[in-house]
Amino acid sequence: MVKQIRRELLASMPLTVVLAAGVGAGLITFLVNLLSQRASLSLEALLVALINVVAPMAVTLTWISSCAPQRVGEAAVRQGQTPIELATAMGSAAICATLLLPYILATAMVAGALATSVPEPLRQLPPLLGLLSPAAMARMALHGAGLTAISALICARQGRRCRHRSEDLPRRIAAATVEAILVILSMEVLLFILVPPDLPPIG
Predict the structure, then answer these.
(1) How far, in Å, CA of 100 to CA of 56, rounded?
(2) Would you give the DSSP letter of residue 168?
(3) What Rg do the C-alpha atoms of the chain give, in angstroms?
(4) Is the separation of the CB atoms in 201 and 42 below 8 Å?
(5) In degrees rounded to 5, what are phi and psi of residue 35?
(6) Residue 6 CA to its chain's centroid (Å)
(7) Closest Cα partner for 75 from 14, 174, 173, 155?
(8) Phi/psi of residue 198, nearest 5 degrees
(9) CB-based contact 144:55 (threshold 8 Å)
(10) Contact in structure between 158 and 69 (CB atoms under 8 Å)
(11) pLDDT tens digits, 113-166
(12) What angle do CA 181, 90, 73 make, to 5 degrees?
């Protein structure tokens, strides 16, 4: 399990950093230039969005893009997967996602601060640390871990379907990727409707 977590962390890290930097800079540019928000308020809004929606979704999407093909292939070559093995596979994916979340937060916030035009932009970040409460961090971690674990379950299910037909593996990898993305997007919409996020006031 530890080896798999390490391997998936190394596989996901580059895409995670690139995606987080793009999201941070892009959202700040949108808030500052198009909505005429002050840099400090824009950074606060960015952090709130990251904690409640963006970071859990981003970490799940990067895990799917980087690790889903390997997961489907592993499930295809195994003779069988017990419930304990399946739970272990889901757990390792959840742990990997949890370990990636700090990198997403840090990279997105630094990229967002650097995208502003204020002098010494990184000095804007320390006052925002109050938003990183233990409760907010725990919700974000559970959110991302849950979505990634479900994605791992989908990969295992698709891999089992081609256990005796190795030529079907590319199609199953594609199916697992699309299904996982559609499932997590649907779950996000449903969760937003049923349990709206409790957003702190900005400013």
Answers:
(1) 10
(2) G
(3) 19
(4) no
(5) -105, 0
(6) 17
(7) 155
(8) -85, 90
(9) yes
(10) no
(11) 888 877 777 887 888 887 788 888 999 999 999 999 999 999 998 888 876 666
(12) 70
